[in-house]
Amino acid sequence: MSYRFGLFFVIVSVPLSALLIYQNIYASEILHREIAESEKAIQKLYMTRVDSDLYGIDKYLVNRLVNDQALLVFDRAALDDEYNLAKIDISNEFTASLALYTSIGGLFTYSKPSGDLVMSQNEVGLSLADRDAISLFLSSDPAIPNYSWLLRRIGSKDLLFRVLKSNTYLIGAWVDTKTLLAPLGHLIPGGGTRSCFVAKDGRSYPQLDDISGNHVDLDAGSRGYAISGSPTRYLVIGERSAMGEFSLVTLVPDAAILKRLPIIRTMNIVVALAVVVVILAFFVFLRKVVIAPLYGLMEAMRKLHAGDFEARVAPTGATKEFSVANATFNDMASQIHDLRIDVYEEQLHGQKAELQALRLQINPHFFLNSLNILYQLTQVKDYTLVQELTLCLSKYFQFLFRSTTDFVFLREEWDHIKNYLRIQELRFPNTLTCELDAPAPLPDVQIPPFLIQTFVENAIKYGHRQDDAFIVRISIKDRSDKDDLAIRISDSGPGFPPSVLQALRAGAPIIKEDGEHIGVANSRQRLHLLYGEAASLRFWNDSGAVVEVTLPRRADIRREGAGAATGS
To answer: Is residue 354 part of a domain?
Structure first.
């Protein structure tokens, strides 16, 4: 019942919280849009007025450039009285025009050959240092555009500039951006709202020091309106000018906007937060009482399934039901652990008996061939070879009766296989050749006894023809990088028949027509009992039959697992 109540609580509270949060977000979006549309309308009207004033100034400058006789004299005269009179006439004309164009901060003309700057400015004019900065700007900036107004920071002033070029002089006007933006401050409500002009490179005029370090994208408003800035967020609204590559941008603090939301917004937030807190508290309680004990039980079950029979559930302050379940699981895991040890010990005894039987299966197969060779040598009275063969057989049977363990050292198996091959060479003196390749010295590792002999015996038995030359090749590669040993047995015979090769790769037993089986299944079973999945057998044809046995360098892999089980 408690779980159903909790599920019902979650089903009700989560959509309710989501609805409240969505309502707050939607209300904020509506408020942002309404304020943005209101500010946008004011911006558009004001930008139209500014563009109209700038257009009038443009017409005035063009008219002066074309019709002002004093400018024509200023253009061609030398530094004489006529030139000085022209400068006076230009200054008087500019002063008179400033009364008509109240938005202009100043009018100027600049002579390129002489470097003279004639300027008339309103009562809020430029300092001498700012005048020198304008002269430097006009003389050193050949890329001044001749087609639009541009924003420049010159000296201590942020100015909106317009320059028209003649052959040897420039005529233009400037407007202080602070003066130009002053009327806009009366139209836009306060609360930290700021306005500025923004050039196409993203710089603000005048510079807003408290905004520049707040990562505000001033160009975001040119696409309508956007929220930008971190950590302080602003509603950015922009309007592009038709008279130059700049925009009028208004920044409204988002905190000031959100203060205009009704009281219900705060109530909604409080309710939403309260619901979230209740849900979180419920889940904390649920995790402590149900999820954590259940997770601990599942983790112990997973470890037990993976083979860790020491896994137990730690005692916790869980409910009575979980305490009973944990104690029951721990008792069950202990019983499984004890039962597994008993079964594994019985399995080990069975494996040892099976390995001994498998090892003895390969021994009787060799007896008749050995007696047959001795009989033939005594018939021809080749007593030297009889002695050599007798010595080889003595070593063979000595190795056979001594190798009652699961593993022998690789050097012992290698000496045995050389001895076995010598017996086979005495049996086929004119047709059998053996090629051996092994590292010197041999690695100090262990392998199952008679493993190599099984495949060599099969190669000679099924690949050799009485009158044809036959080569048996045995190579051992110690692959220390892979921590394994690769033993390859190949011959120059006809190779595996397709059906036999398919059966070998599938791991199926091979039965010959006479009922005799190949000892591959024997060897495969021995490898599986000793190494598990760590050893592998591969078969293919390459100018004859090829068998490759891959063994781990450590011979105690399967036995370590047994020891760990029995010793625990």
So the answer is: no
